[in-house]
Amino acid sequence: GQSYEIRMLDNRKLGELPEINGKLVKSIFRVVFHDRRLQYTEHQQLEGWRWNRPGDRILDIDIPMSVGIIDPRANPTQLNTVEFLWDPSKRTSVFIQVHCISTEFTMRKHGGEKGVPFRVQIDTFKENENGEYTEHLHSASCQIKVFKPKGADRKQKTDREKMEKRTPHEKEKYQPSYETTILTEVG
């Protein structure tokens, strides 16, 4: 339920894709499973979630916080997907909220278990000659884990304690934490 900002940036090289200058593009955000094993059963997993949480959505846009998004939509049948139009030449920030936690998809549900990692994937499309946003421009994603606030604090604390016990050489294998995450381009 916490709102997280995703800043949309036009990362074209000079002169690249001039046909989208002054035009809107459509971005579709999805929360999907990171583990391949769960990807195969994603439909059943999401149906089970829908059954246990009637009327709830997995992903929403915090519209009052967002800047520069046009025509935001959430399809009632796709609980893990939201979409909107935006102008790459203007400042655009979308604030998303994830309403499920990583442990809702683990086998044991009595707390303390390792939550499943999700991915936020963003696919961006331009208009075709019929005015439909079907021509793929770009895809990017990053891994996320979602906890309840107390669980997140506890996880950060135990992660910090684990890191402090490691040798400097072992610490080199881990990424430092950052204020922001640059989403990884999906090929």
Automatic annotation (TrEMBL):
Stretches with biased composition (Polar residues) = 177-187
InterPro entries associated with the record: CP2, TF_CP2-like
UniProt entry tagged with the keyword Phosphoprotein: no
Q: Where is this region: Disordered?
A: 148-187
Q: Does the keyword Phosphoprotein apply?
A: no
GO terms for CC?
A: nucleus
Q: Which PANTHER family match?
A: ALPHA-GLOBIN TRANSCRIPTION FACTOR CP2, TRANSCRIPTION FACTOR CP2
Where is the protein found, in the record's own terms? Nucleus
Q: What is this protein called?
A: TFCP2 factor
Which positions fall inside the Grh/CP2 DB domain? 1-187
Q: Where is the composition biased (Basic and acidic residues)?
A: 150-174
Query: Which GO molecular function, any one, fits this protein according to its record?
Result: RNA polymerase II cis-regulatory region sequence-specific DNA binding
- Give the keywords, sorted: DNA-binding, Nucleus
